[in-house]
Design brief:
The complex is a heterodimer of chains A (about 450) and B (about 325). Chain A is α/β, with parallel strands linked by helices. Chain A is built from 18 helices and 16 strands. A 5-stranded mixed sheet of chain A has the order 2-1-3-14-6. Chain A has a 4-stranded mixed sheet with strand order 8-11-7-12, sandwiched between helices. Chain A is globular and about 65 Å long. In chain B, helix 3 runs parallel beside helix 8 and helix 8 runs antiparallel to helix 11. Classes of the chains: A alpha/beta (about 450), B mainly alpha (about 325). At the A-B interface, helix 3, helix 4, helix 10, helix 17 and helix 18 of A face helix 13 of B.
């Protein structure tokens, strides 16, 4: 009898404690006995497959933060989704409410403007007085800045590279090493490859809605930036609703259509994995315009170890339309660590951002994942020296940062980018001509930003 | 209990009083008993609809300046939606195609044919075939979608099998996306119509059909003049249920084709998702949801009117 009472009492206490814990278990900090929790939200599919680089980075930084702040606990909150836009949606929805907002988030740099203007993430002016800040080159500081306020610290960046298959080029009678000096050179190479080898896709261009931002960024903007037009006119503070550069880009994409991958290859969300991990190792691609991180897939311990990659493939810079200006052009993206406006513990979150962004952590992370480090002092870290030996493409890629440009850090960019991606697909599938794409772009941009914020084509 | 011993006059007076009180009491009981249901329907159906309508009149987005501070913009979303080139008409037509091909033909007609043909089969055959059909219904939708994706995709099961037989295969998911998803939905949903029809068929008295046979009605006449009219209520109930299920279907199409290639399989539900969550225009996507609701309501009202005319509404009540 007595024993039973004891059991019942024990059970009641446990239930009560459980209930209380349940009530207190919000995602942000809970102050009980000095223990504090901060949550870090990240995208599992950011990493080069199989590396788990982001989780490793957060765990390493968590240990350092927990050692510096006894009683603090870092919790990871992974978002798993194949498509990038799904990650953005889930992240934005989590940030929109205090009950779900994490303390530290991994923001795609091109969304910083949109999410800052939405009030999802908060300015972090303290970062500019942080000792590590000066190690970020000005461009890397600008990319996480919106309206003059810093919203995060970059943890990775990249450039776009033309990888070309030396064997296919030699077979087509093109001398290697190859460096195109205009779009015409790219087209001529694609034509020659098609004429000499029917089994190879002459040029892989990212295109269409399924690949979203990659199609717009890597399949359109890297070309547009090689003309005199830009998506956004910084001096007039208006979106360009078309123009000669746009015309030229759409026409170039239309001209490339017979030489690019078939629709069955690009019309699914896993297309980039097919290109990088299946078609490249099979040497079925003449050339591909892709991120600088792709080569890391082939190092020992990568998702597709293939020592032959570095001799089989060459890398070339992206030319401007006619070779004018600096002759080459590039565009960079990358992710940053930011703090949601509704984060539970701002000062700890800021500490965590700084810890995640230390030179050693950034070097280790970007070396594991094949990104370019956004801090200049990261390249002198041991982790970076090791990867640099295994993956010589990274040295080449670092040299392209001098040509690079960034996407407009503005709220309307996301919608405009979605439209560009859809239009690249329409041109690739042949359902639109270059002229129709140009007209459709003008209509869409004007509709999205309003006629007052759109700049009429100058020609 | 004791009414038998009452004086007849007192009993009549009591009955009269009871019936007056009874009417209002019954009404009260009726309201009390249905109140929980009404509350549940209002809370979980009425309120979301009102909320959806309200949201579709704003400029709320997932990100950007109007994410947390949206404002009322009247019918602007609808104006944009009904302007030419928005893709709305294209999506409505694809939704109707999906409805006719996969629900009317693939599920209702085909389900009826199976049930009709199997009605005379020996019990064992019916049990075996019936359970095989029902398995397709038990498979979770996302798994069914994946099965069909692996069957029809480039280098998938069908491509391999045809390749082995020396026949070329043009990836159906790309060349015929609407046929692909309609096939998959027919396969998945046919069991429901089949079950409904085979139950209703077994309820038709056999002597009625035999009498018609004796009178010289051939099998087509027996089917068209006796069996189908007797099943009309079941047919309509089946159509009501599968129409709404098919119009609102998202998972199967999204998992198989993602609405593509291009917009070739972007039915209304996928169009709504893309605008709301891929283009971050939540309110605009909500306006598409309202259109979807209206299309579904038009069908529902039409069915109910037909049912009512037939006096068969009791079946659905």
């Amino acid at each position: 009898m007595r024993q039973r009472t004891l059991w019942a009492a024990g059970l009641a206490v446990m239930l009560g404690a459980g209930l209380l814990a349940g009530c207190g278990g919000s995602s942000s900090s809970t102050a009980s006995g000095g223990s504090k929790t901060i949550t870090v939200e990240y995208w599992t599919n950011f990493d080069t497959p199989g590396t788990n680089a982001t989780l490793k980075l957060i765990n390493a930084a968590a240990k350092q933060l927990e050692a510096a702040h006894p009683g603090v606990k870092v919790v990871t909150d992974p978002i798993t989704s194949d498509s990038e836009s799904e990650y953005y949606t889930k992240l934005d929805l989590a940030e929109s409410s205090a009950s779900t907002a994490p303390d530290v988030v991994m923001e795609d740099s091109f969304l910083i403007g949109a999410d800052a203007s939405a009030g999802y993430i908060q300015p972090l002016p303290e970062l500019t007085s942080w000792s590590g800040w000066s190690a970020f080159p000005q461009a890397m500081q600008q990319i996480s800045t919106y309206n003059g306020k810093v919203y995060g610290a970059m943890n990775s960046t990249d450039v776009q590279v033309i990888y070309y298959d030396k064997a296919a080029f030699k077979k087509a009678g093109i001398a290697v090493p190859w460096q195109p000096h205009s779009w015409a050179d790219i087209l001529a190479a694609a034509k020659a490859i098609k004429a000499h080898d029917g089994g190879v896709i002459p040029a892989w261009l990212y295109t269409g809605t399924p690949l979203g931002e990659a199609s717009s960024f890597r399949g359109f903007e890297v070309f547009l930036n090689g003309t005199n037009d830009r998506i956004y006119d910084d001096s007039a503070k208006k979106w360009e609703a078309g123009g000669p550069g746009f015309n030229a880009t759409w026409s170039f994409l239309q001209a490339m259509r017979p030489y690019e991958e078939p629709e069955s290859d690009w019309s699914n969300p896993n297309a980039s994995e097919t290109a990088n991990l299946t078609l490249m190792p099979q040497q079925k691609l003449g050339m591909i315009i892709d991120g600088s991180w792709v080569s890391t897939s082939f190092i020992p311990g990568g998702p597709k170890p293939w020592p032959g990659f570095f001799s089989a493939y060459g890398e070339a810079k992206l030319p401007t339309q006619t070779g004018s200006g600096a002759g080459y052009v590039d565009e960079s993206g990358g992710f940053a660590w930011s703090v949601p406006a509704k984060a539970g513990n701002r000062s700890l979150a800021l500490d965590m951002v700084e810890t995640l962004s230390s030179a050693a952590n950034i070097a280790q992370f970007d070396a594991t994942d094949g990104n370019l480090p956004p801090r200049t002092d990261a390249t002198s870290q041991p982790a970076w020296a090791k990867i640099n030996k295994e993956d010589p493409v990274l040295t080449f890629a670092s040299s392209l940062l001098q040509y690079t440009t960034y996407r407009p850090n503005l709220p309307d960019y996301t919608q405009i980018s979605t439209e560009i991606a859809a239009l690249t697909g329409d041109v690739s599938s042949g359902s639109m001509t270059a002229a129709q794409a140009e007209a459709a772009y003008k209509a869409k941009v004007t509709q999205i930003v309003g006629a007052a914020n759109a700049e009429e084509p100058s020609s | 209990m004791t009414t038998g011993t009452l004086h007849p006059r007192r009993a009549a007076a009591l009955r009269a009083r009871l019936s007056v009180r009874g009417a209002s009491a019954r009404r009260l009981t009726g309201i009390t008993m249905t109140a929980p249901l009404i509350v549940v329907v209002l809370a979980f159906l009425g309120w979301p609809i009102v909320w959806t309508l309200a949201l579709s009149l704003t400029n709320k987005a997932i990100t950007g300046p109007t994410a947390l501070h949206s404002s009322f913009i009247g019918l602007a979303n609808y104006k944009e939606l009904f302007a030419s080139g928005s893709g709305l008409v294209h999506s409505i037509l694809l939704s109707l195609y999906y409805l006719v091909a996969s629900a009317y033909i693939g599920q209702a007609l085909f389900g009826f044919v199976i049930a009709y043909l199997m009605r005379r089969c020996p019990y064992r055959v019916r049990a075996v075939v019936g359970s095989i059909i029902v398995v397709s219904w038990l498979v979770p939708e996302i798994i069914a979608a994946w099965m069909w994706f692996t069957l029809l995709s480039d280098g998938g099961t069908l491509a391999q099998a045809l390749h082995g037989a020396g026949i070329g295969y043009q990836t159906w998911l790309i060349s015929h996306p609407m046929i692909s998803v309609s096939l998959a939905n027919s396969w998945r949903g046919v069991a429901f119509s089949y079950l409904l029809f085979s139950a209703a068929l077994s309820d038709i008295p056999t002597d009625l059909i035999e009498a018609a046979q004796v009178d010289g009605a051939n099998s087509w006449r027996r089917l068209s003049r006796i069996i189908v009219p007797m099943l009309s209520a079941t047919i309509l109930v089946d159509l009501v249920l599968i129409t709404l299920g098919t119009l609102n279907d998202f998972t199967l199409i999204f998992a198989m084709t993602g609405g593509g290639p291009g917009t070739d399989s972007t039915v209304l539900s996928v169009f709504m998702y893309q605008q709301a969550f891929a283009s971050f225009q939540l309110a605009y996507g909500t306006a598409i949801a309202v259109v979807l609701l209206v299309v579904g309501a038009i069908f529902a009202v039409a069915y109910i009117r037909i049912l009512r005319r037939q006096g068969a509404l009791e079946v659905v009540r």
